[in-house]
């Protein structure tokens, strides 16, 4: 007989299942290796971890087959496994914080800041007093004076802090075809990216993505709301 302890992650819940596998409980079941080296076997797969605790013949068979030894061996291993070791498969940015607890799944950050990069005072200035969004008119790629000012502030900060990087996200409103909006969203991203490149920001410090009305910040059923949703957002991070 052996005890198998399973760690299974289902719907973000870590479940501990203990299964008793019964075989012929004879002294022959314990091989010479198990007599000399009683062990607990650890097996990892993509979504399942198995701890198998084996009995040995150094004590009486009744004691072993009731599971006290083998269960203790398996559970002892489970208790010693770090939390991140068994759940690291759901850590998109690799910062050691599970995605269900990470408020910035795609950016590395410490646990003390909920998995988000630590924002220093300079970054706060660009995110709050200065607009962080570049807005566009309908079917337009033109930058408004307010948007240019926001980009200038971004460039100044990137030059001041060369270890910072910027992520650019393009967004459209919910009108028009997906094909047209996808092209429009990417074209708007390129407008902002070209501005940064022409201002002397190295391409290696810039990442980007384009969305087609999937992340509205205002009511898409109103004219004012759609105007707010036609934007390019930029985020600074280390």
Describe the overall structure:
With 238 residues, the protein is an alpha+beta fold. The chain has helices at residues 32-36, 61-65, 68-80, 83-87, 121-127, 145-160, 178-198, 223-229; strands at residues 2-10, 13-21, 40-44, 48-54, 133-135, 165-171, 206-210, 231-237. Helices cover 33% and strands 22% of the residues. Residues 1-49, 61-67, 82-89 and 121-131 have low confidence and may be disordered.
List the helices and strands and how they pair.
Layout: E1 2-10, E2 13-21, H1 32-36, E3 40-44, E4 48-54, H2 61-65, H3 68-80, H4 83-87, H5 121-127, E5 133-135, H6 145-160, E6 165-171, H7 178-198, E7 206-210, H8 223-229, E8 231-237
Secondary-structure element series: EEHEEHHHHEHEHEHE
Total strand segments:
8
Note the main sheet: 4 strands, antiparallel
Low-confidence stretches: 1-49, 61-67, 82-89, 121-131
Major beta sheet, strand line-up: 2-1-4-3
Straight-line N-to-C gap: 53 Å
Mean pLDDT across all amino acids: 66
Keywords:
238 residues; alpha+beta; 4-stranded mixed beta sheet; 8 strands; globular; disordered N terminus
Could you give a short description of this structure?
This protein has 8 helices and 8 strands, in the order ββαββααααβαβαβαβ. With 238 residues, the protein is an alpha+beta fold. Strands 2-1-4-3 form a 4-stranded antiparallel sheet. Strands 5-8-6-7 form a 4-stranded mixed sheet.
